[in-house]
Amino acid sequence: MPGMVALRIATPQGALHAGRWSPPRAQPRSPIVLLHDSLGCVALWRDFPARLARATGRQVIAYDRLGYGRSAPHPGPQPISFIEDEARGAFAAVTRQLGLERFVLLGHSVGGAMAVAAAGHHPEACEGLVTVAAQAFTEARTLAGIREAERAFAAPGQMARLARHHSDKAEWVLRSWVETWHSTAFRNWCLDEALRRVRCPTLALHGEHDEYGSLAQPRRIAALAAGTAEAGILPDCGHVPHRECPEQLIAAIAPFLATPTAR
Description:
By secondary structure, the protein is an alpha/beta fold. The protein has eleven helices and eight strands.
């Protein structure tokens, strides 16, 4: 499988760590940019980017958001506007510095919401959008799942596991996730307006047994995206398809990206 080439992306707030995977016989098609979840980073995609590059014949690029993984620490508390901020800030810096004039977006969980926002902010450049286990609105199941995860991280050794990927930023990562989603200001958050700005073909994928969101989430994404859109359910899969059922996930993504409308 293709190996990762490490990259550094400069931003006014600090440097971002990124990785790029190139298939052996890359096609002259737009690269796929991955956006990770609330506890994620490049390393936690594991071998999924390499497998996706090989299956699609496209370059795959992933980066650690500011405050995550091997990127610089975040300069302060995570703002409530962090989803839209990513599209205008760090994501724009990645595309600019890597010379990505056209791209496909694939986001997992809150990274899926960020991918929606980025697709709407860059309608001429984004040729296709794939959301995986994304949240489109604040749901009781999401909040309950986050609280359960917070309790699990209180067990001995669990924060050390998170620190293996985020080093001394691990506590900030966890608190940002828990406190943002449970804040009063985030109670009525939704992607409705952002979805109405999406013009490219959209595929909203969701695990049948996702513990952080019901099937109403992908259906809302597919219903409100302004371009052609469809929802797909991954049987017997939970919230992290790229680790739980990567073959199913790639089997759903590859045909979508091979269609003429998702160049």
